Every structure is written in structure tokens, then in C-alpha cells.
Amino acid sequence: MTKRSGFPINVSSGLDLVRNQRPTGDRPNQVLGVNPYVKNTNSLQWLTASAFDNQTPYNLQQYGSLGYNSLLGPGAFTYDAALQKGFRITESSTLTFRGEAFNVFNHVVFNNPNSTLTSPQFGLITSGSTGRAFQLALTYAF
Predict the structure, then answer these.
(1) Residue 122 gets which letter from DSSP?
(2) HEC letters along 5-40
(3) Burial of 15 (0-12, 13-18, 19+ CB in 10 A)
(4) I need a labelling partner for 80 at 20 to 30 A (CA). Which of 18, 28, 112, 133 fits?
């Protein structure tokens, strides 16, 4: 069983307003009193854009107030299972069959949402990990 919290999210403005040549842009300001997470659990929208605001352009004294990696993405909860059976062929050799299943109950594991504030898909989860997977192994030891 694997249960984990989400991975950190680094929100960027997508703009270089402070002129420090960051390719992803500067960190925005966090609007106080506004929850950055969307409360609708039936949606793939994870973050709300109204919780962030860009800093003043060309103000070299002020950087965004939002901390680096201060938000968390969606967590994960999966079950893995394995079965193994050994067969004795001769006194010194064995054959082992092993079957493994990953994410047995096929729970969706979402990736982090888009975290660039200028993107039209800001806060939207657009991908997830692969679903259930099986693998078989046969080992002959002599």
C-alpha cells in the first residue's frame, strides 16, 4: 500500500516583471484571505487564479510573496500485490513463477496542475499516471 501527500507546486507568474531573466517568470503575490485550492472535488481544477496577483512591474525592490514550493498537489493512494510459487525440478534446481499487480484497484493518481499564472490552463490537472499494470516473471535457478 502506498499513501502519500502531493508533490510541491511552484507557482510562477509567467512574466519577468522584476527583470531577473527567469525563464518561467517571477513568483506572484499571494492574496491574503483567499484559499488557493478549489473546493469543488468533482473538477480537475486544483488551484484558483484569484488567489494570486502579479507584483508591480519593474519594481526591483519587491519580489512575489508566495513562497517557493509552498503549495501541494494531489496525493496518491494505491495498492500493489504479488504472488509467488516455487517448484522443485531436481534436488539442486527450482522454477519460480511470480505475478505482480501495481495499482490493483486502479485508483487515479493525478499529476500536479499547470502552475503558470498566465496560462489559460492555470490550476488545471491535465495528466495522470498510468493505471493498473501487471507483470509476470519465470525464474529457473540451477
Answers:
(1) T
(2) CCCEECCECCCCCCCCCCCCCCCCEECCCCCCECCC
(3) middle
(4) 112
What distance in Å separates the CA atoms of residue 140 and residue 122, rounded to the nearest whole number? 52
pLDDT tens-digit series, residues 79-113: 999 999 999 999 999 999 999 999 999 988 899 99
Partners of 52 in the beta sheet?
Answer: 30
pLDDT in tens, 9-51: 988 877 766 566 665 567 788 888 888 888 776 778 999 888 8
Please name every residue paired with 138 in a beta bridge, in sequence order, or none if there are none: 97
Q: What pTM, to 2 d.p., does this model score?
A: 0.71
